[in-house]
Amino acid sequence: MTQAFDASAQETLLAARAEEALALAKRLGADAAEVGASVDQGIGISVRQAEVETVELSRDQGIAITVYVGQRKGSASSTDAGSDSIRATVEKALAIARYTGEDPAAGLADAELMARDLPDLKVHHPWALTTDEAIELALACERAGSAVEGISQSDGASLSSGEGVRVYANSHGFLGTQKGSRHSLSCMLIAQDAAGMQRDYDYTSSRDPRKLRDPEAVGRDAAARTLRRLGAQRPPTGTFPVLFDPAMASGLVGHLMSALAGGALYRQASFLCDRLGSTLFPEWFGLEERPREIEGSASSAFDSDGVATRDNRFIDQGKIASYMLSAYSARRLNMQSTGNAGGARNLRLVAPLTPLDKLYTELGTGLVVTELMGQGVNGVTGDYSRGAAGFWVENGKVQYPVEEFTIAGNLERMFGGLVALGDDIDTRGSIHTGSWLIDAMTVAGR
Questions:
Q1: Which residue from 3, 225, 316, 353 could staple onto 423, CB 3.0 to 4.6 Å apart?
Q2: Quick check: 2 pLDDT over 50?
Q3: Which domains occur in the chain, in start order?
Q4: 177: nearest Cα among 99, 124, 250, 254
Q5: Nearest CA among 407, 246, 421 for reference residue 318
Q6: Does residue 223 sit in helix, strand or coil?
Q7: Is 243 helix (H, G, I), strand (E, B) or coil?
Q8: Cβ neighbours of 316 (radius 10 Å)
Q9: Which residue blocks in 182-228 are alpha helix, DSSP H?
Q10: Could you read off the pLDDT of 8-63 as tens digits, one per residue?
Q11: Which of 204, 156, 201, 167 is nearest to 182 (CA)?
């Protein structure tokens, strides 16, 4: 980084500020309180056509305070963690609490659920990177991609590197801290033929900068992805099997988790309400969360309520085995927190994987989807309709790229129609998955 960031000193400072806020809230009349504080610093570089476009050095901090007066809740936040600001923020939260209605589900998570074991999950790997070094890495990525024959121009390469500290504390006496880092490099390129222009990209991301892919490899792979899209046509209209590539399949997992989230369930805004224990996927499919995985992109020993995280099996042998619950949503559903305040962490498939070439053979004639557009997913009904791009496959072989078409179905029907999972696991995000082959979807093309 170009500016010093002492993560340990920040951790100590934020912890002290959180304890100060809790003590003040108690003195001013709160029955209970919780505090979340964070500070992040990073560098962002973007280059285009061998020129530096932007250099951004960022430093963000904030503190959020929630107080409970009986079962009335008030929250306020500030970007200033100084003592005067903390007092003003606590007073504002208390003022809000006095005007809100009582909520029987409001309050801290139960004290016995607080995390006691806070292991080092190895998620903090700072990168001593100067601005000049960051620029050169981005330029090297772009140069490698632009040098590939057929690439007409670059839409830019970007590098980002950041680290931060977060602290959560509450009046149960819990105080948890975590230092973390995240680094990424991406490149987007453009190619053109008689049919028009196409663009695509590739990227690498990791907690540890030593585990990023080589910049030149990212550029070359971005070029290959771009060139394979030239000559795109519209596919035929009809009902066909559809293969979602890993990046698109992770979106299907995201839709599933949204439907399993406690907030959607107690609002009756999910197509999976009252479905615990029912069959949703084939018997061979499972999905679990591993929040304490070493170096995981979303690893944490405690959730946003201070509750200890644990391995959760959301889908077991095709059946819904667990919802995704915070302390509040669990109370609304008369259940117990699953340690998921703030979402799921490190989702992993528990299922047999099929080599990608065999998956194409099983696809036969149909579509491979590599890009989705639009927001056509109804969480209440599960209805699914998205614009898409990808490739048309016949007899297990790619024939030509396709674009300007729509795929439609229903998530429950799609999950039940899952035929196989690919071994092409994408590990760059918090959802690790390979390609998903769905037996049939409606395609609106030419």
A1: 353
A2: no
A3: 7-227 (3.30.2290.10), 238-251+351-444 (no CATH)
A4: 124
A5: 421
A6: helix
A7: strand
A8: 17
A9: 215-227
A10: 999 999 999 999 999 999 999 999 999 999 999 999 999 999 999 999 999 999 99
A11: 204
User: In the chain, pLDDT over 90 holds for what percent of residues?
Assistant: 97
What is residue 236's DSSP assignment? Answer: P
Nearest partner of 307 among 165, 176, 171, judged by Cα: 176
Element (H, E) at 46: strand 32-48
Closest CA to 315 of 336, 344, 335, 355: 344
In the numeric block, which tokens belong to residue 196? Answer: 């028009």
pTM score, whole prediction:
0.94
Q: Could you report the per-residue pLDDT of 157-170, keeping only the tens digit for each?
A: 999 999 999 999 99
Neighbour count for residue 27 (Cβ, 10 Å): 9
Of 363, 364, 345, 335, the C-alpha closest to 422 is 363
Burial letters for 251-279: b for 16+ Cβ neighbours within 10 Å, e otherwise? bbbbbbbbbbbbebbbeeebbbbebeeee
Backbone angles phi, psi at 286, to 5 degrees: -140, 155
**Is the CB of residue 152 less than 8 Å from the CB of residue 191?**
yes
Structure tokens at 318: 């095709």
Condensed to tens digits (0 to 9), the pLDDT of residues 167-189 reads: 999 999 999 999 999 999 999 99
Cβ proximity of 21 and 33 under 8 Å: yes
Q: What is the pLDDT of residues 400-440, one digit of tens each?
A: 999 999 999 999 999 999 999 999 999 999 999 999 999 99
